[in-house]
């Protein structure tokens, strides 16, 4: 069963008290642990992760919808994508000390899986799935008020509304690179100019875009590059 | 405002009675209508679509999680993806007669947008977003019990659990084609054989896959082909 110090920590830090501790235990059981202890017939946390993913998607969507009453759908969608993603969820998992309590197989432990971002993301989702089953969606909202919403309020994901910033963050994950934008053409009559821009990363063309002004064309080029990089 | 016959129809067919009719009206207002009537300062349904998308994701995930207690996460995810997608949502929109009541601009009307699957999908999401804001998530679940869950129960999306069926459905959207699987190699010791298979569609190789038996390798090849086709 899950460590009693973790049960205390959840109560003290977040006011969360599970009724069904088996659900909490399932959320903190990695498939590698199940595989190494087949004789125990345990359940891994993957089904809870499936459910928690959808719970978090709605929790964040609802919050963004109400917090930004004037933001168009496209920007809400980008903000949501930036919030509901590996880097953010893995950081939340660490903030809540979830990484200290997941049960891993020895092979995965030795391979450093405890600090692997996708594992920590899955764990955050599984925890939220378990919380939802145990106590209903209000409990997920209360937890998000402590761990997710303050980051949204602080603007941590606002860069997502801007493709150029997003491209910069994406390509610089692997170290410093040089990004630059070049005007390729300007065409059309004065009242309906069309600008074409490309974007290079370390001198390699990664995307092109059109727009009614240079700034809009740069944003389109950055978005094009991001879509290609993430494909 | 939204047609009174539609308000009656929602009450009679689905037992749904909106408190705030402005929300229902917003859900049925396409951006093309807003653009053609700028003087009215209307809101289009895109923000509600953003919210409804997440509401439906959780509604379906929760149902699948409970209905299939023994299904592993991968198959749940495929079932969810098959349920929460354009073809399914646009059919639900038509079943509920939503297509008859959306307000479109004249240009889009003439272009046949009223029967466009992506528009009907967005409309289904926007309606669910409005219902959620008006009455809370229980109302979405009740509506889904009438319009979504019976199709899940009838196995309409179960093919998604199987990559070969999914590939067949995907490539045959554009007419009849011939799909075949070929064993390329068998290797490894008897207790740990590895099979490699490719899949061709009209004699063109579209994917390859490995597995511990021929069947598993075929599923992997079909999945590989699907990922490439959808990229």
TrEMBL record, chains A, B:
The active site is at 53, 125. It holds the Pfam family Ribonucleas_3_3. It is an enzyme of class 3 (hydrolase). Gene3D superfamilies: 3.30.160.20, Ribonuclease III domain. Signal peptide: none annotated. SUPFAM superfamilies: dsRNA-binding domain-like, RNase III domain-like. Belongs to the ribonuclease III family. HAMAP family: RNase_III (MF_00104). This is Ribonuclease 3. The gene is rnc.
